[in-house]
């Protein structure tokens, strides 16, 4: 299937690992030039070099902390100036502290909302004017199924995700007349470092082994396994393409049916 992506330019927040890295690579394989950002320069530069070498596309690494408005705007403006255009924004940056209410401090809540929610708001606000100029754009906010399927030991990411979904669907309506689509992609459990951090939290709070915590979580997924970052990236690529031109304001779950199951944890 021809996706109409060759020659486009994408920005991927949190592009040095996990879903962000997989998304940047998948887009580059489709002929997209990519700017990626993260806070760690060494890993960011290495990943950018690997993607460029494999795909032959330009990959621009930009060290930025999307927890600050200045860095979020610098990320977007630097990429737009370098490439001369901006077509696709993929927001993947951010992880939130897991744990149940009694173990959470106010700083945990603020950390979650500042990066996982407001980080997305900041990059969208900075990128939208560039897309409006061209009359075309794709915004894919990789958020998470906790925003629609609350779990007590993930209440800080769940709160940030719920806000992110609300924000995404609201601006989709506003931006549709400008040729810009905006969608929320909500993975369930994905095999990333963040997932294993949540497993460790569950293990600690419940007094069970990490293996038991992992088994309990996977048993709640009807499809019987974790999602991979590459599977999420494939959906990112589709939503960023010409083929998804009538998909906007959608909250798409990728959770192996888990949202319909009772998670016995």
What's this entry about, in short?
The protein is an alpha/beta fold and 265 residues long. The protein contains eight helices and seven strands. A seven-stranded parallel β-sheet has the order 3-2-1-4-5-6-7, sandwiched between helices.
Structural description of this entry:
There is one protein chain. The chain has 265 residues and is an alpha/beta fold. It has a 7-stranded parallel β-sheet with strand order 3-2-1-4-5-6-7, with helices on both faces. It has helices at 18-29, 41-55, 69-83, 106-134, 155-175, 193-206, 210-219, 229-239; strands at 9-13, 33-38, 59-63, 88-91, 137-142, 180-187, 251-254. The longest helix is centred in the middle third of the chain and has 29 residues, at 106-134. Helix content is 48%, strand content 14%. α1 packs parallel to α2, α3 runs parallel beside α4 (106-134) and α6 (193-206) crosses α7 (210-219). The chain contains 8 helices and 7 strands; from the N terminus they run βαβαβαβαβαβαααβ. α2 (41-55) links the parallel β2 and β3. The relative contact order is 0.15. The chain has a single domain, classed as 3-Layer(aba) Sandwich (Rossmann fold), CATH 3.40.50.
């Amino acid at each position: 299937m021809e996706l109409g992506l060759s020659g486009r330019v994408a920005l991927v927040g949190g592009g040095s690992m996990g879903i962000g890295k997989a998304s940047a690579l998948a887009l580059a394989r489709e002929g997209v030039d990519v700017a990626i950002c993260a806070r760690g320069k060494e890993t960011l530069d290495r990943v950018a070099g690997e993607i460029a070498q494999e795909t032959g596309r330009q990959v621009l690494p930009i060290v930025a902390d999307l927890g600050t408005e200045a860095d979020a705007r610098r990320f977007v403006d630097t990429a737009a100036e370098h490439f001369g255009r901006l077509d696709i924004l993929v927001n993947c940056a951010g992880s939130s502290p897991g744990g149940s209410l009694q173990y959470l401090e106010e700083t945990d809540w603020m950390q979650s909302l500042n990066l996982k929610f407001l980080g997305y708001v900041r990059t969208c606000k900075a990128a939208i004017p560039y897309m409006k100029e061209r009359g075309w754009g794709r915004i894919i906010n990789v958020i998470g199924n906790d925003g629609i399927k609350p779990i007590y030991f993930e209440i800080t990411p769940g709160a940030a995700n719920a806000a992110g979904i609300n924000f995404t669907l609201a601006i989709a309506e506003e931006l549709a007349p400008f040729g810009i689509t905006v969608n929320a992609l909500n993975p369930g459990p994905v095999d990333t470092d963040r997932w294993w951090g949540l497993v460790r939290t569950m293990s600690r709070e419940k007094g069970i082994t990490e293996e038991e915590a992992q088994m309990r979580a996977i048993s709640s997924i009807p499809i019987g396994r974790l999602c991979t970052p590459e599977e999420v990236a494939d959906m990112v690529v589709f939503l960023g393409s010409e083929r998804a031109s009538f998909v906007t304001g959608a909250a798409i779950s990728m959770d192996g049916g888990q949202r319909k199951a009772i998670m016995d944890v």
